[in-house]
Each structure stands twice: as C-alpha cells, then as structure tokens.
Amino acid sequence: MKIFNSMNRRKEDFVPLREGKVGIYACGPTVYNYFHIGNARMFIVFDVLRRYFEYKGYEVTYVQNFTDIDDKMIARANQEGITVRQLADRFVKEYYKDAQALGIHPATVHPYATEHIPQIIRLVETLILKGLAYEVNGDIYYDTAAFPDYGKLSGQKMDDLDAGARVGVDEDKKNPADFALWKKQKPGEPGWDSPWGMGRPGWHIECSAMSMEYLGETFDIHCGGQDLLFPHHENEIAQSEGATGHPFARYWMHNGFLNVDNQKMSKSLGNFFTVRDITREFDAEDIRMFMLSAQYRSPLNFSREQMQQAHASLQRLYGARDKILFLMEDLEDRALWDEENAVKSRVDDCVAAFEAAMDDDLNTAEAMGALFDLVYLINTEISEKSAQSLAQYALTQLHKICEVPGLLLKKPDELPGDVAELVEKRAQARSDKNWQGSDALRDAIAALGYLVEDTPKGQKVRRLT
Q: Which single residue of 88, 288, 389, 410 has CA 20 to 30 Å from 123?
C-alpha cells in the first residue's frame, strides 16, 4: 500500500512500525456545536482508511480526540450560562449521533483533552527543562527558534513565519511565531492547578499529549484536514519531537478542502452547513457516498446536484444487492457452467481492481469505479437462470468490499416509510380484489424506485436497478 506522506510530499510504501499493527491519530472535533460537512469529510475519509487496514488484516488502534476546552467553547458556555463541561457533554452526544448515522465507527479511544491535564503538564515541564519553552506572567510559550526543524512539515521558513505572524497586545513572546502551551486563567474561564498557577492548556499541546499517551512517542499515521497542516500539526511535531528526541508520526495524511457550490464554506457567505442540516433533505448514507466520489487529497465540491448523483449511485448499489437476494430464493443449487465460472472470475477482477485503487493512496474515486463495475456485472450476468452458488459468491464479494467504504448499511427489508406504506395498501387492495387500485399502487411504487412482484408467497419488493 502506498500513502502520500505530507512530510515528504510524495507517495511512499506503507511499512508499519510494528508488524501487523497500525496506530492512527486523527484530530477530532471541538465540541461546541454540531460538526459541519467539512469535518464530515475528514471523519469519513479516515474512517475508510481505518476500515481498509482492518480489511487487510491489520490490528488498528485508532485514536480520535475531543477538544473540550478552547476559546470558542468558553465563549459559548458563558453565553448560555452553563459550564464548559456541560457544553462538551451535550455536543459529544450529538457527535456520536451524527457519526453513527454516517456509518463512522467509534474510535478505539476517544480521549477528552480535559481528562489529560497531568500528561499535558508533564509534557510542558519537559519542554521547559529542555530549553524549548519559557514562561511569561503565567503563560508558557514554545520557543520555535530553539527547534531547528520547525517548519519542516509545511515547508515554511522561520523568517517568513516571523514576518507573517501577529503578536497580541498582551503577549510578550520572544518570536512572533511562538505559540502558547499553557494559558494563565482569566476571569470567567475554567482552570487547572499547575506549577505556573491556575490555567488551561493550549490547543496544540493537547493533541501531542493525547496521541503519545495512547500510541507512544512514535506512531504510524497522523491525519487531519489540510487546514490543520499549519500551524496545528507543525506545532505538534515541534512539541513532541522536542520533548522526546524521537520522530513523532511516520506518515502524515491530509484531506483536501470541501467547497460549497464552488465557493469556500463560510458563515458570512451563507453556505455553511452542518451534517444535521443536510440530513433534513438527504439520507446520511448519501453524504458518505458523495464524500468518497473523489480521491481524499483532491478538493471536493458540495452541491445539491452532486448529492442527487450520490443518491442515485447508492440506489444502484442497493438495487444490485436486492436483485440477488430477490433471485436467490428460487435459484437452483448446482455446479457452475463454464460461462458462469468466467463470470465468477470477472467478479474477482472487480475485487482486485478495488483493492489496487485503495492501495494507491486510498483512491476511493477509482475504487468506487471498480465497485460499480461489479454492480454492472451483477445486473447483466446474474439472472433467474444462474446457479445459486454464483449469486451467493457475487453477493459475498459485494458485501466484502462495501464494508471498506462503509456502504450498504441498510438491511434488505428496510423499505423507506412511503414505499412500505404503499406496499401495505397494495396488499389490502389485492385482498379486496381491487385490481385497478392494485395496479395503480404498483405504478406508484415503481415511481419511487421499487419493483413489486406477486408470488405464491405474497408480494416481493426490491429496488429497481
């Protein structure tokens, strides 16, 4: 498997630190609101990364934190007259609701920043002892000039960083690019006791402390959105490697930006959407399908038209699954003919093409192409004349590779409410021998994308392919 390593700006063969095991740290949400669709892209993409490693047989330790203390959280909690912890608990619950709807597996560990204050303080103390951090009136800053490799991830030079950085009125830093490790408590803010008085951690130090707590001083993959590459991930490297003297993450992966109607997502432009907003119109699985339509490093444009295309693609996928299930009840269990063995071989070719695309830096766009080649094969080659074993093999392989992108989440008998209601009405119409009404309901069901057939066992319903 090859991964584009942001550190070296090229694709590299993935070689795990420990054979058969992978440690991944993914930057999680700041829990002061519902997460937006830009966040969702990152969460979905790296959920797929984790799933693919598991598909390949690795034991994965996946850590995704909750940032539950920062300026935005303090401001909103004060505005609502509640504690920061109450605010965090509320939106952590909301995160889990949206993540579950999107098919995102819970991380192996979901650490809270505020539950790792002792680890953060020890890390800051180490940096002070090593001459990499200094105190100014109860605030602790990282001395970027004291870390020779600062800027190696982003490719930015210290002179450029100093020229572009801003220094706040109340800050007395050595260099404009220096950043806070520990912040002195201000009125109306929560605080924790420390060797420097009451205060709270800076954002960057939280991820360094939590990642090393669960994955060790050096681990395999650190991932996040492109917007986090600088300064957040650059600062994590400086803190972590400065403290330990060892490499931090061996591979850095960053997903591209998500635009809305070809514009940068922004509240001021009125095109800022949370996942909760989008699921009022589209199914959450449609969002997941859309997010995988492009290779993760490429920019992705969100629009209603793109979502409608994703919905149609997902319906084709379910249609192929349901077709096989529909046919299998009546298929004969017999040895395969030569022609059917050839179809089985073509199924294997689709699976191999899917794996090749995923091995090429998680290219979900090409992988989805291979998946829909399999859908086409099912729709054109699996029929009422096929052997049951061929249909079962194709179905098994379809489910196997769909587990990686996290699709086909709904059960076969899980009809949408409007379809289920029409099916029930049609059953009553047939019972009443209302054949004209029965036919009209069949057409109404077909208009919603479902085929209903009458069998000795009653009505059978499946998606149209």
A: 88
Could you tell me the two tokens for 330? 């009546």
Q: Which residue from 140, 178, 139 is spatially nearest to 158, judged by alpha carbons?
A: 178
Question: What band does 169 get if pLDDT is binned at 50, 70 and 90?
Answer: very low
d(CA 433, CA 41): 51
Which of these, 230, 252, 296, lies nearest to 40 by C-alpha position? 296
At 1-31, the pLDDT tens digits run: 999 999 999 999 999 999 999 999 999 999 9
Long-range contacts of residues 78-84, Cβ cutoff 8 Å, at least 24 apart: 78/188, 83/190, 84/190
Question: CB of 207 within 8 A of CB of 232?
Answer: yes
Question: Beta-carbon neighbour count of residue 451 at 10 Å?
Answer: 17
- Read off the pLDDT of residues 266-319 as tens digits, 9 standing for 90 and up: 777 778 899 999 999 999 999 999 999 999 999 999 999 999 999 999 999 999
Q: Assign 69 to helix, strand or coil.
A: coil
Q: Which residues contact 241 (CB under 8 A, 6 or more apart)?
A: 147, 149, 247, 248
Least confident of 39-53, 262-276, 318-332, 373-387: 262-276
Please state, in angstroms and as integers, the Cα–Cα distance from residue 374 to each residue in 210, 301, 369, 400, following that order.
42, 26, 9, 12
- CA-nearest of 9, 104, 51, 62 to 354 is 51
Per-domain boundaries in the chain: 2-255, 286-402, 417-463
Residue with tokens 């709904």: 410
Compute the residue count for the chain.
Answer: 465
Q: Which amino acid is at 150?
A: Y
CATH class label, 2-255? alpha beta
Q: What is the assigned CATH class of domain 286-402?
A: mainly alpha
- Residue 337 is given by DSSP the state P
Three-class SS state of 213: helix
- Of 297, 206, 200, 294, nearest in space to 255 by CA: 297
